[in-house]
Specification:
This protein is an alpha/beta fold. It is built from eleven helices and seven strands.
């Protein structure tokens, strides 16, 4: 089966529209010397109802990797949270952070890689959105952030994050389609705010972890996704080349007085004193260069002048 696909790169985020064929197997540890999918740690992110759990299961089966699901069925806060978000927002976020941290430790110590249904980093997206919407107190948010930062020292970053991109309207349609009682209170307004927070999150996390952003307005098979992810993962690189088109030539001219701070003025006076010292004029040889001892002397006078100023 063949299908056409288009991909582009926006910063550290790989944009993917569609996929096509099979993938790899598993080894004991991830090979960082090659774009190998063996024992790779994949995080799957996206809005509620995007299809993360379904993809995590089929992708893990295809790549022969362990799968780690989002804690939903045994989440004792979930129904209360959707019933009164403001009251239970902090408790819910701490509960999820703890559960996902536990998954992180399993992935680290088992050493087999895995596919994780929603990454631990996405919890901060929900916490920030709740704070911004007035559904979490500022002190609770700051406590959560501090806890997350302390725990992050013991976390393992995914090799890649697969972001399933769906619109808030499509997310709501899929939520209603699966008909979970605890999700009946989710509104389009809530999902719209969450979608905006996710867009910001993807741009930020892509500076640290490679992101493959998939247009998931239509579901894809495990074969298609595994093949496309392997192709994009092989292309991922984070090297930037910098070139200077014109050389910078030093100048000894006195800078204009632009109302700089005393420290900036002092530094300008160091340059001026060093190159216009009377000792400098008499000590220049035929090459116009200053002997080392005269340079040191002039520099000492200049620094003393700065200290006085």
């Amino acid at each position: 089966m063949e299908s056409k696909a288009n991909a582009s790169q926006d910063g550290g985020v790989q944009q993917v529209e569609a996929p096509s064929t099979p993938a790899m197997s598993r080894a004991e540890s991830h090979d960082f010397t090659a774009s190998s999918m063996r024992s790779v740690f994949i995080g799957i992110s996206g809005l509620i109802g995007a299809g993360k759990s379904t993809l995590a299961k089929s992708l893990a089966d295809k790549l022969n990797l362990p799968v780690h699901y989002e804690p939903v069925k045994d989440n004792e806060y979930l129904a209360d949270f959707y019933g009164d978000i403001k009251k239970y927002s902090f408790a819910m976020q701490v509960y999820l952070l703890n559960k996902r941290f536990q998954q992180q430790q399993q992935i680290i110590w088992q050493g087999q890689g895995g596919v994780q249904d929603r990454t631990i980093y996405e919890d901060s997206v929900f916490a920030r959105m709740l704070r911004n919407a007035g559904l979490m107190e500022e002190r609770d948010y700051q406590t959560y952030v501090s806890l997350f930062q302390n725990m992050s020292n013991f976390m393992k970053k995914p090799n890649i994050i697969i972001h399933l991109d769906v619109s808030p309207a499509e997310s709501l349609r899929r939520i209603k389609g699966r008909n979970r009682e605890c999700e009946t209170g989710i509104t389009l307004e809530y999902l719209t705010g969450l979608h905006a927070a996710y867009e910001e999150f993807i741009q930020e996390i892509a500076r640290i972890i490679p992101v493959i952003k998939v247009d998931y307005s239509a579901f894809r098979t495990a074969d298609e996704m595994a093949t496309k992810i392997a192709e994009e993962y092989e292309r991922i690189g984070n090297i930037r080349h910098v070139e200077f088109t014109s050389p910078v030539t030093p100048t000894a001219t006195k800078p204009a007085n632009t109302g700089n701070t005393s420290q900036e003025t002092g530094m300008a006076s160091v340059q001026k004193t060093l190159f216009s010292s009377p000792n400098a004029k008499s000590a220049k040889g035929s090459t116009g260069a200053l002997p080392d001892d005269e340079v040191c002397g002039a520099l000492g006078e200049a620094l003393a002048a700065v200290a006085v100023e």
